[in-house]
Amino acid sequence: MDHVLLSDGAPLRLKDEDLERLKVLFLAKHALAGGAFDSNDGSHATYHDEIRGCLEKLNIQLEISNTYEVLFQPIEHNFIFTLFNRGGFRNSEILASCLSEYHSVPYLGAPPSMRGFGDDKHLTKMMYQNLDIATPQWQIYRTCDHSAPRPSFEAERYVIKPNNSSASWGIDHGTDWDALRPVVQKLLRDNHDVIVEEYVPGVDVTVPCIGAGKPWILYPMLNPASDDINIVTYAQKRGFEQGSSIELMEDHGKFPELIDHTKRVNEFIWPYDYGRFDYRIEPNGKVWALEFNLSCNLGSQRAICQSAKALGYSQQDIVESVLANSLERQRTVFEKICRGEHLRWEM
User: Fold this and answer.
1) Cα–Cα distance list, 192 to 53, 184, 185, 308, 314 (Å)
2) How confident is the model at residue 229, as a pLDDT?
3) Are 290 and 278 in contact (CB under 8 A)?
4) 7 Cβ partners below 8 Å, 6+ apart?
5) Exposed end of the chain (fewer CB within 10 Å): N or C?
6) Nearest one of 217, 160, 219, 154 to 187, comparing CA atoms
7) d(CA 149, CA 109)
8) Helices 121-130 and 112-119, axial angle in degrees (round to 10)
9) Strands of the sheet with 61-65, listed across from one edge
10) Which pLDDT score, from 0 to 100, does residue 10 have?
11) What is the pTM for the complete model shown?
12) Taking CA 262 as the corner, what is the angle to CA 260 and CA 263, rounded to the nearest 5 degrees?
């Protein structure tokens, strides 16, 4: 697969004829909140307001909603710009894309099947294993069994988190499995599958990638935490606490695996509109793949936009590029709906 790297790439621009025809529904949990910091989701609310502003600057026909219910009835739009996740139920991040498929309307992100695969940390680690890409030892605990036996591997420290969590929600760690076991069981009782992973010392690195007709890999970004364990928490990612940062990785060239692994995974999961590939680098220089996240945060202070900024591009540039990429990969559906037709599968 052909990729563009770093300064060799550039954002896409929407065609004039598409700008004139676009009727976009912007769907996000905090789309109507005015940018106020949220008591539960923190800076995620600010992020949704930023994206609303970017879409308004495109001067397209735009409707804004903060509820899935808008898709429970016929719609007049020809594109769904959905950022809706953490909707209060498991796998909520794929509902909007599934309903968009039902309406035969193009939508931002990736097909629901690939979103579901990417959001299942256990399955993505199976993929890494199949590709001979190093990933920490792990075990999956599904909600059908609450017994939570000791993992099949020994580790000096275990990291636990919901298997489908975003922004490190629910993450915990410890050296004593007997102390961690009740935490796992509570998550299982709350209907969360749980992944338990061997802790690897080091620093987190994320590799942003956006659709620009082909995968465009941006500068790798460091995401360190201020404690000795170096595990970034939900509270830090959402701005409730200090102690984490996103920094340009100046010496990324010393770790070619970051780009190579990302390219290899893209062979399996492309096409999509934007994503982030997360790694852990040990003090000895070994690179471990952790997970990837499609349709991740496009906030101005998060990894994708901070990486793009180092290349001279703004959040506005990136929002337009992912929308243009999404239109091109769904061009057949877009043109049909603009003609008043609907694409329906024969099965």
Assistant:
1) 34, 9, 9, 34, 36
2) 83
3) yes
4) 311
5) C
6) 160
7) 37
8) 90
9) 61-65, 23-27, 79-82
10) 96
11) 0.93
12) 65
8 to 194, 199, 324: CA distances (angstroms)? 40, 36, 18
The count of other CB atoms within 10 Å of the CB of residue 255 is 18
**pLDDT band at residue 134 using 50, 70 and 90 as cut-offs:** very high
**Per-residue tokens: 218:** 């941006």
pLDDT at 89 over 90: no
Please choose, from the candidates 236, 235, 239, the residue with its C-alpha nearest in 3D space to the C-alpha of residue 43.
Answer: 239
Are 138 and 163 in contact by the 8 Å Cβ rule? The answer is: no
Structure tokens at 245: 């940062």
| pLDDT tens per residue, range 160-174 | 999 987 767 778 999
Order of strands, sheet of 138-141, starting from the edge strand that comes earlier in the sequence: 138-141, 194-198, 158-162, 172-174
**Residue 142, number of CB atoms within 10 A of its CB:** 12
What residues contact residue 161 under an 8 Å CB cut-off, 6+ apart?
121, 168, 169, 170, 171, 172, 194, 195, 197
Residue 346's pLDDT band (cuts 50, 70, 90): low
Residues 222-236, mean pLDDT to the nearest whole number: 81
Residues 249-290 pLDDT 10s: 999 999 999 999 999 999 999 999 999 999 999 999 999 999
CA dist 4 to 1, 211, 344, Å? 10, 10, 34
Which amino acid belongs to residue 47? Answer: Y
Given a contact cutoff of 8 angstroms between Cβ atoms, the answer to whether 225 and 243 are in contact is yes
